[in-house]
Automatic annotation (TrEMBL):
<dbReference type="InterPro" id="IPR000362">
    <property type="entry name" value="Fumarate_lyase_fam"/>
</dbReference>
<dbReference type="GO" id="GO:0005829">
    <property type="term" value="C:cytosol"/>
</dbReference>
<dbReference type="InterPro" id="IPR024083">
    <property type="entry name" value="Fumarase/histidase_N"/>
</dbReference>
<dbReference type="GO" id="GO:0004056">
    <property type="term" value="F:argininosuccinate lyase activity"/>
</dbReference>
<dbReference type="GO" id="GO:0042450">
    <property type="term" value="P:L-arginine biosynthetic process via ornithine"/>
</dbReference>
<protein>
    <recommendedName>
        <fullName>Arginosuccinase</fullName>
    </recommendedName>
</protein>
<comment type="similarity">
    <text>Belongs to the lyase 1 family. Argininosuccinate lyase subfamily.</text>
</comment>
<dbReference type="InterPro" id="IPR022761">
    <property type="entry name" value="Fumarate_lyase_N"/>
</dbReference>
<dbReference type="Pfam" id="PF00206">
    <property type="entry name" value="Lyase_1"/>
</dbReference>
<dbReference type="InterPro" id="IPR008948">
    <property type="entry name" value="L-Aspartase-like"/>
</dbReference>
<feature type="domain" description="Fumarate lyase N-terminal">
    <location>
        <begin position="107"/>
        <end position="272"/>
    </location>
</feature>
<dbReference type="InterPro" id="IPR009049">
    <property type="entry name" value="Argininosuccinate_lyase"/>
</dbReference>
Amino acid sequence: MASDSKPEGSMLWGGRFTAQAASTPLMIKYNESLFFDRILYKQDILGSIAFARANGKSGIITQEGLEKIREGLLEEDIHTANERRLGEIIGKNIAGKRHTGRNELRKIDDHLVNFLKVIAARAENEIEYIMPGYTHLQRAQPVRWSHWMLSYGLAFAADLDRLRETIKRVNRSPLGCGALAGNPFNIDRDMMAEELGFEGLLWNSMGGVADRDFVSEFLQWGSMYMQHISRWAEDLIATILPSLALSVFLMPQKKNADSLELLRGKAGRAFGHMLVS
């Protein structure tokens, strides 16, 4: 006969899983995703507020209830409320170190635009500078510094275009799709999408729930971008300034481009994420 004991705390996926193998400490730990989900806490709370507001509009909850939900989710501010709750779950010392997940795609766009402005300005102001051009890591022909700079400027400009195209395709809201067959409560999906900053909807509920194209598309974009970063870093390794290099005690004559080598290593990591997505 099944035991009436439950997993510690109130599990959102309770019910028939109670007292089954899925409720053992080992399986709870295996199935939990807090390590990843905590990065998305801000988006999760804002999504909950938008959904509550849509429920208020359709009459499922009262305006008073909506306001209480909103106040509860925004207690003092999102960061304070979530910090406190996360501290209750995993401990204050660990919770205080959690990431806030603010690196949105549009911030990458802004950084790339600023980077391209710097490249263009440097190329224009330093057009008379001459440097050796390399092939096969060997000096080949003299080239203008500005020519070398703009070779990467064009690559990163293409990355910026691809990023904007990716954002346009993937910035579609699945909220309101339900688990599979949509939402029968006349939820205003357009209102929720607009409130959360989406540019449109995923119209088919089954496709919206199952869709992971946005993950693959971003990883593909990121891999291309990191390929350009890696190539740029390789060029700089050959000419790194001593002030930017590191050495070792046993070989003080060396100038190791650790920071640039780390960039190339991180590029390989991005390629790996894309392949397993």
